[in-house]
Design a protein that fits this description.
Blueprint (H helix, E strand, L loop, with lengths): L22 E5 L6 E5 L7 E3 L17 H7 L2 E5 L2 E6 L1 H7 L5 H4 L1
Length: 105
């Protein structure tokens, strides 16, 4: 008889909750002092009683989507042949409604 284990226990990596935008993780000094809460659900938070290694709702904290990048972006403009400087995306949209970055995509 042959037993084949696929995707066995993963013990070497940290829980995904530590790097997820929706995760709230509190660790104590002891290895068994760990509280993980998933805040993905808008109605209620989910307590995770174990380290999470795969999750369909995972969103890496370091990953930024296009809308958030546009919010924090500064746009360099030139008027009258000389540099003016940086302006906020909101001001750019006001001055150039047809050329708005979110309209291009």
């Amino acid at each position: 008889m042959v037993i084949k284990v696929r995707n066995g226990t993963k013990k070497s990596q940290d829980s995904l909750c530590k790097s997820c935008m929706w995760g709230l993780v509190a660790e104590g000094q002891s290895s068994n002092e760990l509280v993980q809460i998933c805040q993905k659900s808008l109605n209620n938070n989910i307590f995770m009683a174990f380290p999470v290694y795969e999750c369909t709702g995972y969103f890496r904290t370091a990953q930024v989507d296009l809308k958030n990048m546009e919010k924090i972006a500064w746009i360099l403009t030139i008027k009258g042949g000389r540099p003016v400087g940086f302006i906020t995306p909101d001001r750019f949209k006001e001055e150039n409604p047809k050329d708005s970055p979110s309209e291009r995509w």
